[in-house]
UniProtKB/TrEMBL annotation:
GO terms for molecular function: calcium:proton antiporter activity. One of its GO terms (biological process) is intracellular calcium ion homeostasis. The chain crosses the membrane at residues 154-180, 251-281, 336-356, 362-384, 396-417, 437-459, 471-491, 538-558, 662-681, 687-708, 715-735. This is VNX1 protein. The keyword Calcium applies. Residues 151-201 form the Inner membrane component domain. It comes from the Eukaryota. It comes from Daphoenositta chrysoptera (varied sittella). InterPro entries: CaH_exchang (IPR004713), NaCa_Exmemb (IPR004837), NCX_ion-bd_dom_sf (IPR044880), YccF (IPR005185). The keyword Protein biosynthesis does not apply. Residues 367-487, 590-732 form the Sodium/calcium exchanger membrane region domain.
Length: 741
């Protein structure tokens, strides 16, 4: 793909493509400073800026604008305060292949999951030098490796180098004691010095000359391969060349030395891999185990590289210069980010520990709940990757069905399992937890997700622009959805009967003031006439209208008004690059991973709901706070990461759409599905929220629409959204727990 460029680097508009339209030539000596075009040109550029920088998608941007022939003066008159209405802006995104083109197109479709990572393998020549270094093997000798005295190398010495070197010394002593293992003892002695500080050194696999394979004397022999005196292990040894002694020495090594060292290197490899920035150390240990320890000692040569030394002949097995690289957060294995790879074993531990230790003999409920919640993060990533892969390799209908079916599967799985458990135990607290989690997701995706993206993106870009028209569609749907979701609550406030649990007469006067506690609106008065005759039909009506409005929004943005996004995706290749699509996951593989991830998600959600009750009961923190933070935002972490990545590349439109799309789906899909579920499986879930949820949600939506009104933002506006979100969290933190919990 193309490099991730700044917004104004490849934009063309209006007068650049129309020779009939006069242009104001640039003047280097003007007092105005920067080069200027006509006012019409600047208005067209403003339209182009609304789209944000799409260079992070790795594409060429072509923005042709068609204007009728007009003079510069008339353009000034007609467009002094408004955008050129005759400018038809079209953005063409050139992708690497057809699959990536479909993925980019799906990112700009309302209701489709936005995915930043590639679903196909990127061509090696299109990657930056930093990324190429991440995937390179540790067998390349550089002309100048620079200084090896770095913080990462010192960290290696403190964490692994000293005890690994000591272990090699001990194994060398054991090999010398056995006598017949002396050649391997000398090898371990040399490797002890290497692994104490392997940087700037090289391990080479050499071919033993035929003249050294027979018993000949002469300490002054020289090697034609490297020159100079023959290394000590090459010098002929009659007993080592004998077949019997050679096999005996190898057997002793494989029994006494190699297993211990392989186990130590395995421990180093796993530890360094989990630390991510030390993945070069993991590669070093893995390569040492698979190559160096299995070679005969006479085939291994260890040398220190010098700045003026010519490249060595023969095969280089290991050559490492740096133990740490901070860019390894970009590392991927078969298209899967390294963080998701490292968290995958956590899912297995959670399932085994959760179902094998049901009586909580090994760990308590708090540990199991935390593990189950953390396991949801990698599973959410795999579900998102699978949805993006299937959608990119399928037609629009299949992609729409997959996104509609599995787009909210993470949240719905947890909500439904919690409602089932609450219904079985007769505990209304689970229904309140679900309502709080729904509200927390709505508020977090409206305030925290776009606000955090604005702050992080604003650090790199002074001002970011986004497509205000597409954001306006999501905002309108949010207003509609919030009004529909909280309509039954407002109805119950107006017509419900206020019931208080305890009241005290403050003035000791029967006609005086009363202080009441635990007050709520009772909808079940007179055998539930108000609820069953009025509130429940309203809930069902809203649950039908909200998905219908969602479908209308899809039809509006994907069919009749696709020009809102002004995006054209082309799978044309970049000049000089012609690559076929090599997908990371095929459709069938993605489907299998999607189903397995969904199954594991259901199991983790079941464990989370199974062990959340002691936390809610014994915790001193309000159940509101736990639900609106941990339960609401942890499943959305992969989406938050995608939004941050888009914002860093100055593509704030997609960052905003990520939060808006989740919030809209919460109100227009997830809540109606939960209401539908309660019809077939009666639970304590009713679409009547507390006052705190109503006020927090409505205020968040109003504030978001005010911030997004002008189609541009900076880090200050993002800070406002984040601070308001934290203020609401403080309110939930100090709020008393809901009734019934």
């Amino acid at each position: 793909m193309a490099s991730e460029a700044e917004p104004g680097r490849r934009r063309r508009c209006c007068t650049q493509d129309m020779p009939d339209v006069p242009k104001v030539l640039d003047s280097r000596g003007d007092s105005d400073g920067p080069r200027r075009g006509s006012l019409c040109d600047r208005h067209c550029a403003a339209i182009n800026n609304v789209q944000g920088d799409l260079g992070d998608l790795g594409c060429h941007l072509h923005r042709p604008c068609v204007l009728p022939a007009m003079s510069t003066a008339s353009c000034f008159q007609q467009h002094s305060e408004e955008v050129c209405e005759s400018c038809t802006v079209k953005t063409t995104l050139t992708a690497e292949n057809a699959v990536e083109a479909n993925k980019l197109s799906n990112n700009y479709k309302f209701g489709f999951k936005k995915w930043k990572s590639h679903v196909t393998a990127r061509p090696w020549e299109d990657r930056s030098e930093i990324v190429k270094e991440l995937y390179s093997d540790l067998n390349v000798i550089r002309g100048s490796g620079g200084s090896t005295r770095t913080c990462g190398n010192v960290l290696y010495l403190l964490l692994f180098g000293w005890w690994l070197s000591l272990l090699y010394v001990l194994v060398a002593a054991v090999m010398f004691v056995t006598v017949i293992g002396a050649p391997y003892g000398r090898l371990c002695w040399d490797l002890a010095g290497y692994f104490l500080w392997p940087f700037g050194k090289v391990i080479q696999k050499v071919e033993v000359p035929k003249s050294h394979q027979v018993c000949e004397a002469g300490a002054g022999e020289s090697s034609a391969l490297l020159g100079g005196p023959t290394p000590r292990r090459w010098r002929p040894q009659c007993w080592a060349g004998t077949g019997y002694w050679h096999h005996a020495s190898t057997a002793v090594w494989l029994c006494l030395g190699c297993p211990v060292l392989a186990l130590a290197h395995g421990l180093v490899c796993v530890t360094a891999w989990l630390l991510i920035v030390l993945i070069p150390v993991a590669k070093l240990s893995a390569r040492a185990t698979s190559r160096v320890l299995l070679l005969p000692p006479e085939r291994v040569l260890i040398r220190r590289l010098r700045m003026t030394e010519v490249p060595l002949e023969g095969e280089v097995i290991l050559c490492c210069y740096r133990a740490a690289n901070p860019y390894y957060y970009k590392y991927a294995v078969d298209g899967i980010n390294v963080f998701a790879v490292n968290l995958l074993p956590l899912v297995l531990v959670t399932l085994v520990l959760g179902y094998a230790d049901s009586p909580n003999h090994l760990t308590g409920s708090a540990v199991k709940f935390t593990l189950a919640l953390l396991s949801i993060m990698p599973l959410s990533y795999y579900i998102g990757m699978a949805i993006a892969s299937i959608s990119a390799q399928s037609n629009f209908a299949v992609g729409a069905v997959v996104n509609a079916t599995f787009g909210s599967i993470t949240e719905l799985t947890f909500y439904i399992t919690a409602l089932i458990k609450g219904s079985r135990e007769g505990n209304r607290c689970y229904a309140e937890v679900v309502k709080s989690a729904l509200t927390g997701t709505l508020v977090g995706c409206v305030l925290f997700v776009p606000g955090l993206c604005m702050v992080i993106g604003g650090i790199r870009h002074q001002e970011q622009r986004f497509n205000s028209r597409s954001a306006g569609v999501s905002s309108a749907l949010l207003f509609l959805s919030v009004g529909g979701v909280f309509a039954p609550t407002l109805f119950s406030k107006v017509y419900g009967k206020l019931v208080c649990g305890e009241c005290h007469n403050v003035t000791q006067n029967p006609l005086g003031h009363y202080l009441c506690h635990n007050c709520h609106f009772d909808l079940m008065d007179n055998n539930g006439t108000l609820y069953y005759s009025h509130v429940q039909p309203l809930v069902y009506t809203v649950s039908i209208l909200l998905p219908a409005a969602y479908l209308i929004g899809l039809f509006f943005t994907l069919k009749t008004h696709t020009h809102i996004y002004d995006i054209h995706i082309s799978d044309c290749h970049m000049p000089g690059h012609h690559h076929s699509a090599v997908v990371h996951w095929s459709r069938w593989r993605a489907l299998v991973i999607l189903l397995l991830s969904t199954l594991c998600m259901s199991a983790c959600a079941d464990l989370a709901t199974e062990h959340i009750s002691p936390i809610l009961t014994n915790s001193t923190i309000s159940q509101y706070f736990i639900s609106v933070t941990v339960l609401a935002m942890v499943p959305e972490l992969p989406e938050i990461v995608n939004g941050i990545q888009f914002a860093l590349q100055n593509n704030l439109s997609l960052s905003i759409e990520i939060g808006n799309c989740i919030a809209v789906q919460v109100c227009m899909l997830q809540i109606p599905i939960l209401v539908l579920f309660t019809i077939f499986y009666p639970t304590n879930f009713t679409l009547v929220f507390s006052d705190l949820h109503v006020y927090a949600s409505m205020f968040s939506v109003v504030l978001m629409n005010y911030i997004f009104m002008d189609g541009k933002c900076d880090y200050f506006q993002g800070t406002v959204l984040v601070m308001v979100y934290f203020i609401l969290l403080a309110v939930y933190f100090f709020a008393p727990s809901p009734s019934g919990c």
